[in-house]
Amino acid sequence: MKNRTNIILCSKKAKCSSEIIKRLSLYLRNLKRLEKEGVETISSDKITQFLNASSVQFRKDLSYFGGFGKPGVGYKVKSLLKELENILGVNQEWDIALVGAGRLGGALSRFEGFSRFNLRIVCVFDNDKKVIGKKRGQLLIQDVKDLVKTVERKKIRIAIIATPMEAAQSVCHELTKAGVKGILNFSPLVLKVPNGVCVSNVDMACELESLIYFAKRKR
Amino acid sequence: MKNRTNIILCSKKAKCSSEIIKRLSLYLRNLKRLEKEGVETISSDKITQFLNASSVQFRKDLSYFGGFGKPGVGYKVKSLLKELENILGVNQEWDIALVGAGRLGGALSRFEGFSRFNLRIVCVFDNDKKVIGKKRGQLLIQDVKDLVKTVERKKIRIAIIATPMEAAQSVCHELTKAGVKGILNFSPLVLKVPNGVCVSNVDMACELESLIYFAKRKR
DNA sequence: TAGAGTTTGTGAAAAATAGAACGAATATTA
DNA sequence: TAATATTCGTTCTATTTTTCACAAACTCTA
């Protein structure tokens, strides 16, 4: 379930997991908030106060990429923010392709939250003749047959798969063929991808059903 | 990041984590598919072939709740399916509360996927005077001030937080005060909850940003 | 019924992840 | 300047999770 395969080289140590990267993203968001509030310096203790991560974890996560803090002082909010943006690569805009304009896809394409993180859904695909050609927000829903062509032309590297389980693998294949390097997979299927492609799985059904389980047995 | 706090008693062993429960949900979905296809018996090897879990993990996960398989044979699809439905509690209807009627909240309340899991959004809350009193689908958007009262009265155990980050923790506090035991959290904040409450985080921005990181350095 | 071939369930080992402890670096105060 | 208080970065330790390995249970065939 957990993605133990996404192990890559960092600057100092041998490898770092995708869990660390996700936490970096979380830290980044909090730094942005702090910057807005005018905070200039922050300690690992303070910044993790509202996160579930410990201050040790924070320092350790950062240490994979270098020492950004000063003992006795903490971290400069602005410069750490820039460092994290660089590490994550979020200081540039990224275009995303969305495949699947069904219920979930619809919810996602209407969710403008992405733009806050420099992410922009620039095209939507489906295989259902009934929805192809219709508008989904600002975007025209395109035939999934044009996927490779469009994704190649727009040089899209990141895609979201929000199709039914059955279609997921073939869509995934098309996407990677077109040069996509990162896939956010909402289907419960485990996608087979060529080397160099990274898949992140979000399975809402699993999340919901696990909640039910816990809700059931507590009084 | 990972939820190590949600440890609960199982039938046989001392404790089992929420990761296990999520995998059970995954297994359940695949069993349903197999049942549809007319498959009567399945081995742990075969069922995990297309999942992100090993056959050992499958057997061990199940073993927390009992031995459902037969050596030399495998598992009866139909009966294991029933067992899992029972364990997870998905064979009954569950009412859920949605907090946050903004963009994401709006998309979620329109997302009919929930009903597939016997989940029904029965009330929507917001703190914005401009939307309170308006309709969101079939439901009237209520003032978040009435949250505790309503959730208590309706005996709601599961809630979705789709508020901005700033409001998430206080909403979470109110929800748990009112008796909610499971929270699906769409805000990037990691929520602090009392013992016995389970939080599932869906942070798409986080997932996407980690993808960017990996996509960035592959050519 | 005997023997070969599967497949389960689980204790033990390995790997991954998180947490504690502490020296070293910096700031502050008297 | 010296003493004290912070806070980082890292090593060492503990915990959790996953994988390995194998006995026991079962089927099937002759």
What's this model, at a glance?
Two copies of one chain form a homodimer. Chain A is α/β, with parallel strands linked by helices and 219 residues long.
Q: Please name the CATH topology of the largest domain in chain A.
A: Rossmann fold
The radius of gyration of chain A is 20 Å
Oligomer: homodimer
> How many independent structural domains of chain A?
2
Question: How would you sum up the global shape of chain A?
Answer: globular
How much of the sequence of chain A is in beta strands? Answer: 15-25%
Q: Report the major sheet of chain A.
A: 7 strands, mixed
- Unreliable spans of chain A are 1-10
Main-sheet strand order of chain A equals 5-6-4-3-7-8-9
Supply the helix-strand structural class of chain A: alpha/beta
Helical element count of chain A? Answer: 8
- The average pLDDT score of chain A comes to 86
CATH superfamily of the largest domain in chain A: NAD(P)-binding Rossmann-like Domain
For the secondary structure, the number of strands of chain A is: 9
The CATH architecture assignment of the largest domain in chain A turns out to be 3-Layer(aba) Sandwich
Of all chain pairs, the largest interface belongs to: A-B, 70 and 74 residues
